[in-house]
Structure formats: structure tokens, C-alpha cells
Amino acid sequence: MSAAGLRTYDELAAGLRALRVWSGLSFRDLHRRVVAARRERGVPELPVYNTVYRCLQPGRTRIDIELIADIVRAFGAADHEAEWRQACAVASGEILESGVVSVQDTLPAGTTVFIGRGDELRLLLTRPDPAAATLIAVEGMAGVGKTCLVTHAAHLLTGEHGHEACLWVDLRGYDPQLPPADPTAVLDGLLRRLGVPGQEISRLGLEARRERFRQALTATTALIVLDNAASEEQVRPLLAETPGSITLVTSRRHLTGLPADHRIELGVLTAAESVELLLGDAGSRPDDRSGAGPTVRDDSRASEQIVELLGHLPLAVALIASRIRSTPDWTLDDQLTRLVERQEGLAVEDGIELALASSYDRLSSGRQRLLRLIALHPGQDLDAYAAAALGGVELPEAERGLDDLAAHHLVQRSSAGRITLHDLIRLFARDRSRNDDPPRQRQEAMTRLLDHCRYTAARAADLLSPHRGDYDDQLIGPGTPSPPLPDRDAAAYWLETERTNLIGLALHAAGNGQASYTGDLSWILLRFLDVGAYCDDAELLHGTAVALLDGRAAANARWGLGIVHRWHGHLELAQREYLTALEIAQQHNDQALLSRVRLALGVVSGQMGRYEDAAGHFRQALSASEASGQRSRCGIAHNNLGAICLNWGRIDEAIGHLRTALVIAREMSDRPTEARVLGHLGIAATGARRCAEALDYHAQMLDLARQEGNPALEGFGLNNRGDTLRALGRLSEAADMHRQALALAEEVSLVVGILEARNSLGETLLALGQADAARAEHQTVLSLVESCRNRPEEGRAHDGLAQALIALGADAEAQQHLRRALNLLTEVGSPRADQIAAQLEVVRS
Predict the structure, then answer these.
(1) d(CA 335, CA 344)
(2) What is the pLDDT of residue 206?
(3) Closest Cα partner for 146 from 210, 228, 49?
(4) Do residues 67 and 185 share a domain?
(5) Residue 293 sits in the same domain as residue 214
(6) Residues 6 or more apart from 351 whose CB is under 8 A from it?
């Protein structure tokens, strides 16, 4: 029954199968028990039989810890649930790390010297049918030059065909530290680069993202490079398959299952090509040093022996070529002698290892140290500031060091100026670091990097949300150079650029006894990940922090996890996280934390239609905010209380809260809250029949929402404006507002916005005399609302549908919907309930 020692999902699956044998349960009985237990607890997500069955099968790439816990309890091993949860957390680490992916919309910098590969290059540039999708796979051993060839071809293709979209992603098939990239996460990055909003992507599964990817590509011509693929299964969901698109794939293995138009098996260079790459420009000019020996072009025998020693591998030859250029006082015989001597000291006689060792030995001790330390970085690329932090040096020294390493072909600079390392060089340098750098020094380097990233991320987050003032503890200078962040745009750009590195660093810290950094980054990045709808990243980061931390840090991480659950529509799960965080806040009498958690609980309760509970949480949040001096959150609490009062029909009380909230929001320069307050004031003015005043509030709100670039807020404002226009009898304009609001809500997959816009549109269509169209809108709401359990909008939809049916003469059917609307709206305390009760009596008679 124990899960001790289980570290991978396949091991977990095997353990669960053994547990099933011990319990004697059939799969059918297991499924019934899991469903029954969830129903008893009131959990809305009821897994189908196949979902439970597959939890016990090998080969899974994702894991649902809550479902595993349910299965363990169903087997009668509840005493071991904690062990199984811990094993799931361990196994999930690698699985979730596969979701840390960086997709670029620019090509890596091309090589200045490209030798040979003529036949292969012609195949890469040949398109059997330019109007169709083209797929070319380049396969070969490590260091043979696959990425170099594809990069060169991609630059030529881009110049020739002028592709509107150019996307590049390293699939990490053979990364020394991270697992292969998850196709679902890769599609997230590809779609974002194509302009699809993150809020829309976050609600899509693998197949839906795959289809959305193809849709997005139909409007453009695309060149897509999938570098370092691990398998056909990883690549297949990422294929464009749209007319005119070109996909180039590289891999160390044969991808025979892909429908490639061309398949290139890349071998080593010929002897002549190797020599040409080795000598480069040096071989074409005489040595003008008097008495320095023969010219390099005269010593063909030595050059042939050198490339033979290197196995004709382009990576190895390029490394030695850079050494030749940097040692003009060495003849080729000198170089050959040194390589032979170096080879004798290697445990593995490999051309790349030999070339790396030779190039590395030529570096100064300072440059060797820099290479060793930057190889410790857990991300895929880094900038000079990160290098300075790792090396513990000033920025100019780090930049000079990186320039030297680039000149020796030991690092590469991307077109954006960032630094990358070939995975073989990274492995070599990390191995040298283990041999040459004491563990204490390696840890000190990583601590400097973590301090640098935490500090810079906190500065960026503070610029994005200056009214919050939540990052004071992290705004302590790290003592290493930090990039300038002059404004919000620079802050947002830095966070976007470093996002995957920050997640990788948080995971590194979690696994190396520095979990406090994981908690800090979870807190600092919470709003950035939320606004950008990086739900997978947020779930990984906050979930890791929850598993490792306690106290306030764990409560903050649970708050973040609750936001992720709300994105997915799992309100009960969000509430569970918030309630646990609430217990921690109460234990520590932490008023600032109580304020945050109470606000979150109030929002969830309101979405569930539990307005009394919501109002209670908001009042307690207000009290805690005042006690802790959280002025901005006082404004949020007043705004939310105002919204609850509007739902109850208490217009004057609502306006009192909202006016207070508006003063605070403007005082704190809290523009998102100011926009929401203006929207609610517009609703209140409409309810009081002051429609001209309402339209002015809506105009101010929409202006702020657009300045903030917040489509969810903009949709909220458009829909409210439509409601006011309907009250004025300007029905066609109102319908147009609702349709615009619906389009925005659908664009960002904001379910509550979709429900509100469709209900409003249905009410306006009925006022226009289009009862059939109104009925269709409300029926659509009812088909959507079941999964998200939004009681207020569900009641409103039943009410609207009943009114449409009455207009169509279907009174008997209308009665059913009126009764359902009456129950739901009475439950949430809506003043509309009394009107429905009276109407129901009329319809019955």
C-alpha cells in the first residue's frame, strides 16, 4: 500500500495496479466508488470510467493528484493518502517541468561561415508544391550540424519568401537538465506568438490548441522550426499542415512516423569540407610573421590529421578553428601535437570532447570559470546581467567574457543578443564545474542568480502594479548589476522574456534546499501569470511552493492556486485553497493576508451566487485591510460590496460603497479597480433611471479599460453600456454593444463575460420583437452555465427564456423556466424574484 520510493508516473501507475490487486476491486467498482465519494463531498467534477482506468496505465504525461488520492481512498488505503500525494508531487515535478517552454518569433543568428551541405541545402530550399504545406526532417548524431544547417536554410527561406510569421522552438529532446517540451505547452507559446490571447489559450486542451493553431496559420504564411525533437509523438501535434507553411524539424533519432516531404540523414563533413571549415579565412592568406614558420595553408597533412582526430564533426572542427584564429603564433603542427597530447588524457576518446577540452584549456582561468558558472543556469538562455550575477563580476567584465566565449564558439548569441549554449557544451562545462568548483562556490553562484532574478522580478512587478506595494521584502538590492526598467513597458518586456527562466529557477531552488526563493517567486509572479493567463506556469509554480512551504508563503501560493482553479472554472477547488489559506492567516493573525484571502473568498462566493457569504467576506476583508494599512484593498472591498448591493437592488447603499471605492482607487492610482468602480456606478445610475449619467460612467470606464489593454474589462463596459441603451429604448445600438462585448469575451474565453453578454443580448432581442433569436441566446447560456455553476446568470437565463416563450405563446413551457428562475433568484436574493413570482401566478391563471 505504501508509495514510498515511487518517483515516476509509470512507477505510480504500477503501484496503483498492485494496490488494486490487494483491494480486489474491479475497475468498474473502482470508478463507482470514486464517483460516489465525490458526489458525497459535493465535488462537481465526476470522472468518466476511462479517466479512472487510464490513471493505472503506464505512459501518462499528466497527472491529477486529487484523482489519485480519490483512487487510493477507494482502494481502502486512506491511511497512506499522504504518502501517495507526496509521491505524486515528486513524479509531477518532471512532468510539469516539461511545460516550461520558450517559443521565439525570430531566428537564431546565422553563421558567418557555412561550408558544404550543398545537396542537403537544396532539399531544404525545394518545395514540391509551394501552395501546400511542406515538412522536412533533418536527422543525425549530436554535433553533426543539424541546427546550423536548418538555421542557415531558414534565413535563406525567410529572405526568399518573406514569411509573415517565423517561429522557432527548442523541443529539448536531449536537454541535460529539463525533460522534453510538452506539446500542449509548445502550442501555448506558438499561439501567443501568433497573437492569440492567453486567456483564450488557457481554456483549450491539446486537440483544441492544435486546431486553433491551424486556424491561426490560415491567415498568414509561416516558417516553423522545431529543433531537437525527441519523438514523432512530440512533433505530430505541432505540424502546421496549412497551405504555404514550411515546417523544419531536427532530431537525433529517425522520425520515420512523420509525413515528411524530404528526410535528410545528415552525416559528418567530408575531409575536404572539414579542412575548409578548419582553416576558414586563415587558409587563404599567407603568414606575414617573419620566421614564424610555414603558412597554415601549406601544412595540409597536419590539417587533415586534425579533422580526422575530430571525427569531421562540424561542432568540434568549428571549436578548433576558433582556437587556430586566436593563437596566431601556433603552427598547425603545434595544434595537432597539442590535440594528440590532450587526447591521451581523456577518458573518452571523442572528437567533440577532444575539441571542447582543447578550446577550454586555451581560455584564461577567468573565462573558464565564467563558462562553468553560466552552464549552471537552469534556463535555455541568459543575458549579460545573469552572467554577471553567476560570475559575481561587474557588467562590463561579464560582457567582455561572453564576447570572448562567443569568439571561441563556446557560446552563441541570438539575434536578440541573448546567450545560449549547445547542450554538449553545457554538459562539458557542468562536468568541469563539478570537478573544479567546490559545492559551496556553485551554490553561492546560484544564490547570486536567484537574488538577482528575485530582485529584478520584484521591481518589474512593482512597476506593473505600483498601487499594491506588495514587494517591499524582495526589493533589496542583490549587490550585482540589474537591468534598467524605466517604465511599465520595460518591466512587462523583461518578465515576458525571462518567464521560462524564472519558472526554471524556482524549480531549481525547490529541488536544492532553497524553497524560500520558490515561495518568493510564486508571490512576485502571481499577478503577471494571472493577467497573461499563463495557467500552466502558475499551476506548476504555485503548486510546487504549496508542496514545500508552510506559513504565510504557503498561504500566498494557495491564493495563486485558487486563481488558477477559477480560470478553469473549478470554483469548489478554488474555495478549498482559499479556506486553507484563511486558516493560516487566522493562526498567524496576519491582517494583510486575511485581507487578500477574504477578498478572494468573496469573489468565489459571489460567482457561486452566495451573496450573503460574499458580502460577509468583503466586510471582513475591509476590516483586515484597514487594520493592516492596505489602502488599495480597502477600495477593492468597497467596490465589491457595492456590486453585491447592486445585485440585491440596494442602489443607494451600493452608490455609497462605490463612491468611497472611487476616491481610494484614484488616490492609489489603481486603474483596474477605478475602471471596475466606474462600471458599477454606471449600473447603479441605470437602475436609478439616470441613463445619461450612466453613459458618462461607461465612457470613462471604457477609456480606462482600453488604456490598460484589458479586453475583459472592456467587454464588461460594453455590455453595461448596452443595458443602459436598452433602458433608453435605443435597441439596435444596445444589441450592437452586446455583440461587441460577446466577441471580446469569446476572444479571451471569459465564461462569465460570455454568459452576461448572451443574456443581455437575449433581453434586447426580445425587446426588438425577435423572440426566436432571444430564446436561442438564453438556451445557449443554459448549455454553458451547467459546467461553471454560475447561479445568478443561470437564473437570469431561465427568466429570459421564459419571457421569450411567453412571447411565442408557449406558456406551459414558460412556467417550467419561471419556476426554475424563481428558485435560483430567490436563493441568491435577487429583487427580480418577487416580479417572477407575480408573473408566474398570472401565467398559471
Answers:
(1) 15
(2) 83
(3) 228
(4) no
(5) no
(6) 143, 309, 310, 311, 312, 313, 316
Contacts 24+ apart (CB under 8 A), 610-617: 610/828, 611/644, 611/647, 611/648, 611/828, 611/829, 612/829, 614/640, 614/644, 615/641, 615/644
Within-domain flag for 840: yes
Residues 6+ apart with CB under 8 A from 430: 176, 372, 375, 376
> What single-letter DSSP state applies at residue 280?
G
pLDDT tens across 716-765, in order? Answer: 999 999 999 999 999 999 999 999 999 888 776 677 888 999 999 999 99
Element at 815 (helix H, strand E): helix 811-828
Phi and psi, residue 374, nearest 5°: -70, -25
Residue 152: give its domain's CATH number: 3.40.50.300
The Cα 99–Cα 188 span in angstroms is: 10
**DSSP per residue over 130-174, as a string?**
TTS-EEEEEE--TTSSHHHHHHHHHHHHHHHH--SEEEEEE--TT
Residues 142 and 207 in one domain: yes
Residue 775 to residues 743, 779, 799, 817: CA-CA distances in angstroms?
Answer: 19, 6, 11, 12
Which structural domain, as residue segments, surrounds residue 183?
103-265
Compute CA 160 distance to the chain's CA centroid, rounded to the nearest angstrom: 33
Q: Are residues 128 and 198 in the same domain?
A: yes
Report the distance separating Cα 322 and Cα 403, nearest Å.
13
526 within a domain of the structure (yes/no): no
Residues 258 and 300 in one domain: no
Closest to 317 (Cα-Cα) out of 282, 365, 273, 364: 273
* DSSP state letters, 534-578: -HHHHHHHHHHHHHH--HHHHHHHHHHHHHHHHHTT-HHHHHHHH
**Average pLDDT score over the chain:** 86
CA atoms within 13 A on the CB side of 247: 25
Q: Is the pLDDT of residue 468 over 70?
A: no
Number of domains in the chain: 4
Domain contains 794 = yes
What contacts 409, CB < 8 A, 6 or more positions away? Answer: 318, 319, 321, 322, 359
Each residue's pLDDT tens digit, 311-334? 888 888 888 888 788 788 888 888
Q: Which residues pair with 103 in a beta bridge?
A: 169
Give me Rg for the CA atoms of the chain: 31
**Half-sphere exposure in the Cβ direction for 62 (13 Å, CA):** 15
Q: Quick one: 251 and 142 in the same domain?
A: yes
Q: Which of 362, 383, 412 is the last residue of a domain?
A: 362
Whether the CB-CB separation of 366 and 400 falls below 8 Å is answered with no
Centre a 10 Å sphere on the Cβ of residue 630 and count the other Cβ atoms it contains: 24
Report strand pairing: 134-139 vs 246-251.
parallel
| 415 three-state secondary structure | coil
In a domain, residue 808? The reply is yes
**pLDDT interval class at 173 (50, 70, 90):** confident
Residues 326 and 257 in one domain: no
Instruction: Name the pLDDT band for 284 (thresholds 50, 70, 90).
Output: very low
696 SS3 class:
helix
Which residues have C-beta within 8 Å of that of residue 362, sequence separation ≥ 6? 323, 326, 327, 408
pTM of the model: 0.74
Contacts of 497 (CB under 8 A, 6+ apart): none
Alpha-helical runs (H) found in 437-514: 439-464, 488-511
